[in-house]
């Protein structure tokens, strides 16, 4: 496997991952990864990345979970929005449907 950033050699290893939960940070030790021997970049297998996302998702409150699930459903249905279409100053008043 080759590093996406520097084309160095990736080797299997472990790392510590931090998950930002807005009001706190969760630290997960001994996460399996691939590390670049040249620049130190870390990448995760799909299974590990999905597990980390599940841990993060499980820590969200119900409103945050529903917002993420709705966003995923919108994406699956082709309902995406250009950044130019979003009025960032009045986001809470916009109807994005």
Keywords:
97 residues; alpha+beta; Ubiquitin-like (UB roll); 3-stranded antiparallel sheet; 29% helix
Helix and strand sequence? EEEHH
Cα distance, first to last residue? 42 Å
What is the overall number of helices? 2
Strand order of the largest sheet: 1-2-3
Global structural class: alpha+beta
- The assigned CATH architecture is Roll
- The percent range for helix content is 25-40%
Number of domains: 1
Per CATH, the class reads Alpha Beta
Question: Biggest sheet, in brief?
Answer: 3 strands, antiparallel
User: What is the arithmetic mean of pLDDT?
Assistant: 80
The shape, in one word, is extended
Low-confidence stretches are: none
Radius of gyration (CA) equals: 18 Å
Remind me, CATH topology?
A: Ubiquitin-like (UB roll)
Number of strands: 3
Instruction: Report the β-strand fraction as a percent range.
Output: 25-35%
Compose a concise summary of this entry.
The protein is an alpha+beta fold and 97 residues long. Helices cover 29% and strands 26% of the residues. It has one domain: Ubiquitin-like (UB roll) (Roll).
Structural summary, described in words:
Strand 2 and strand 3 form a beta hairpin. The radius of gyration is 18 Å and the shape is extended. The chain has one domain: Ubiquitin-like (UB roll) (Roll), CATH 3.10.20. It has a three-stranded antiparallel sheet, covered by helices on one side. It has 97 residues and is α+β, with helices and mostly antiparallel strands. It contains two helices and three strands, in the order E-E-E-H-H.
């Amino acid at each position: 496997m080759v590093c996406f950033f520097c084309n160095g050699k990736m080797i299997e290893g472990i790392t510590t991952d931090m998950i930002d939960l807005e009001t706190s940070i969760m630290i997960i030790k001994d996460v399996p990864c691939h590390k670049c021997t040249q620049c130190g970049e870390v990448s995760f297998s799909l299974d590990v990345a999905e597990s980390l996302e599940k841990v993060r998702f499980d820590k969200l409150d119900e409103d945050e979970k529903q917002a993420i699930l709705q966003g995923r459903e919108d994406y699956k249905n082709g309902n995406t929005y250009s950044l130019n279409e979003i009025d960032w100053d009045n986001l809470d008043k916009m109807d994005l449907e």
